[in-house]
Write a structure and sequence with these properties.
The chain has 298 residues and is an all-alpha fold. The protein has 15 helices and two strands. Strands 1-2 form a two-stranded antiparallel ribbon. The site of geranylgeranyl diphosphate has 19 residues, from helix 4, helix 8, helix 9 and helix 10.
Length: 298
């Protein structure tokens, strides 16, 4: 998915993966820890932690790189546990994830449920145990609050519930936007906002611009996801295509068509980029990510 000027993503990726690995319990401790490693250390684009690292670089946060890496690891863990539960038979019932058997297929349902259940508090535990003189307990608490709200009953869980209830129904474009904001967008927004908390002298107006950026970015990312479910290559996306159509779900392509959906993703990506350009920060790499997420093949 990368061209030469995207090498910064590789550097970040190794920081992210090291921080995640350091935060996990030993793989050989139990069947659950084996399932946890299997489901987390298995590739994945690491977009959410990438945003955290790129935002931190852009606004030059007051905390250490090690702190940023741990916050990024916590954000990715929340995403990873949502994927394990999303694949369960009671949810999307998907057999493949990131090019390998999904957790409940490789292990069993109980193990997948417990692995997901274990990863959620682990992500919060990581945040509570960060030691950095420039990260106050108050800010830590605010970050935990942000992540908890993003995945709770007014965030990811509600988005997932609406997604399940929408099977065999035709949603309007607005309903679809709202569902994806809850399901995917709020966690992306939390990743952006938690970095703003790491900078003392950032203005409220700039934080609001970053929120706008994250909403457009999150939606563009999700629309491309829907488009890839139709035009993607199974090997590259790591799971069978047409899974949304087969479940009779409303998606952007089912409402707007593939071409219009891709156009919508691209214009949101451009709008997200334009917001970044207005900010008084070095946002070049974040801007590149806006282009990448709407042209990605996985
Ligand atoms: C786990 C909080 C929680 C609630 C349970 C299962 C569930 C309710 C919610 C699932 C929400 C979900 C899976 C959202 C993500 C949708 C999405 C765009 C997944 C793909 O993300 P990528 O492309 O995947 O970033 P990789 O594999 O690259 O990390």
């Amino acid at each position: 998915m990368k061209t030469d000027d995207l090498n910064f993503l590789d550097k970040n990726l190794s920081r992210i993966n090291q921080a995640i690995l350091k935060s996990l319990p030993p793989e050989n401790f139990s069947r659950i820890t084996e399932a946890i490693h299997y489901s987390i250390m298995n590739g994945g684009k690491r977009i959410r932690p990438q945003i955290i690292l790129l935002m931190s670089d852009a606004i030059k946060v007051d905390v250490s790189d090690a702190t940023v890496d741990l916050i990024a690891a916590a954000g990715e863990l929340i995403h990873c546990y949502s994927l394990i539960h999303d694949d369960l038979p009671a949810m999307d019932d998907d057999d493949f994830r990131r090019g390998q058997l999904s957790c409940h297929k490789k292990f069993d349902e109980a193990t997948a449920i417990l692995a997901g259940d274990a990863i959620q508090p682990l992500s919060l535990e990581i945040l509570t145990t960060i030691e950095d003189p420039n990260l106050s307990s108050e800010i830590k608490l605010k970050i935990i609050n942000l992540f908890s709200r993003a995945c709770g009953p007014k965030g990811m869980v509600e988005g997932q519930s609406r997604d399940i209830l929408s099977e065999n129904k035709l949603l309007s474009e607005d309903e679809l936007d709202e569902m994806h904001y809850l399901k995917t967008g709020k966690l992306i927004e939390a990743c952006v906002l938690c970095v703003c908390l790491l900078k003392k002298d950032i203005f409220e107006a700039q934080i609001n611009q970053f929120i706008e950026f994250s909403r457009k970015f999150g939606l563009a990312f999700q629309i491309r996801d829907d488009v890839l479910d139709i035009i993607g290559n199974e090997e590259e996306i790591g799971k069978p295509i047409n899974s949304d159509i087969n479940k009779n779900k409303s998606t952007y392509p089912s409402i707007l068509g593939v071409e219009e959906s891709q156009k919508k993703a691209e214009s949101l990506g451009k709008e997200a980029m334009a917001i970044l350009k207005e900010l008084p920060y070095e946002t070049k790499n974040l801007e590149s990510l806006c282009t990448l997420i709407v042209s990605r093949n996985n």
